[in-house]
Amino acid sequence: MHLDLWMSLAGLIVGVVVGLTGMGGGALMTPILVILFNVQPLAAVSSDLVAAVVMKPVGGGIHFRRGTVHFGIVKWLAIGSVPSAFLGSYIISHVHIENGLKTLLGWVLLVAASAMIAKAVLGNRRRGGLEGDQALTVEVHRLPTLAIGLVGGLIVGMTSVGSGSLIIVVLMVIYPQLAMKELIGTDLVQAVPLVFAAALGHAIFGDLQLGITTSLLIGSIPGVILGASLSARARDSYIRPVLVTVLALSALKLLNVPNGWLLSVAAAGTVIAAAGFVAVRVRARRAEMAPAGDARLAPTTP
After folding, report:
1. Could you read off the pLDDT of 274-293 as tens digits, one per residue?
2. In Å, how far from its chain's centre is CA 102?
3. How far apart are CA 200 and CA 168, in angstroms?
4. 236 in a domain, yes or no?
5. Nearest partner of 240 among 148, 62, 63, 121, judged by Cα
């Protein structure tokens, strides 16, 4: 079993991102393995999913202890996602066209990047939702939730992408009553059995390479712990534009888009990220100054 320290470094970086934001694990790691390390797509998907089995329970466990998980939604998602993820691993392992898998990965990454933008927009429009026991007693829409699990599990089983970026966006639409923390906690916990089923399928049918998986885990486990410990201090709004840009570039690279277009996307992403950073800083400064300003304008009492 050959260990690769550069892969461990990549695992560390991705682990930090996952710990900070709860998203981007498979969407980042799989294209990194394919593009930077020239790993065959099926081996990249298989090895990444097995590594995710270790990473996913970290975030899910935190939300479980905080009581921000709607287990009714988790149950119906898992009923659909567990068998479909296993089926997806079987299907993709029997498609012996590596370029076809690269193309599929490229399109799924584009959808994942778009989903992250949609998540930011929908999250900004939310008014907080219900809290505590009220949120966790929201009625489960069984058939739509089951359908989300079926489709999401199949995509994850075939590409390793989607458990933290695609499913949560659809949940935000179907369950607008839930606060963001309940949505995130529910999504993270449902991803545990989903990723386990997909990883088991790839261990049986796919191209699991223990050297790659072990190299990733050496970096990703401390990365997730570090990212989770920093999550209270790092703004998701700073990280998301960078993450979306990286996903878009990875997708276009897998789709064999010319380098000129890649440079254009990178430049546009840099400008948008810089603009978002400035906007967040301006809003934060105004929020800090508002109480002081109100105090100055408030009438004095004798």
Report:
1. 776 677 677 767 777 765 54
2. 19
3. 23
4. yes
5. 121
Q: Any residues with CB less than 8 A from the CB of 12 and at least 6 apart, and which?
A: 219, 220, 222, 223
CA distances from 57 to 12, 28, 65, 204 (A): 17, 18, 12, 22
DSSP-assigned letters across all residues of 252-289: HHHTT--HHHHHHHHHHHHHHHHHHHHHHHHHHHHHHH
Residue 189, pLDDT > 60, answer yes
DSSP 234: S
The Cα–Cα gap between 66 and 148 comes to 25
pLDDT over 70 at 272, yes or no? yes
Residue entry with tokens 């994942």: 112
Residue 302 lies in a domain: no
d(CA 153, CA 246): 24
178 part of a folded domain: yes
Q: Are the C-beta atoms of 142 and 73 separated by less than 8 Å?
A: no
Q: Is 283 exposed, middle or buried (0-12, 13-18, 19+ CB in 10 A)?
A: exposed
User: What's the total number of domains in the chain?
Assistant: 1
41, HSE (Cβ side, Cα atoms, 13 Å): 22
Distance CA 7, CA 211 (A): 10
pTM of this prediction?
A: 0.76
Measured distance CA(227)–CA(193) in Å, rounded:
22
Specify if 274 maps to a domain: no
Give me the domain span that covers residue 228.
5-257
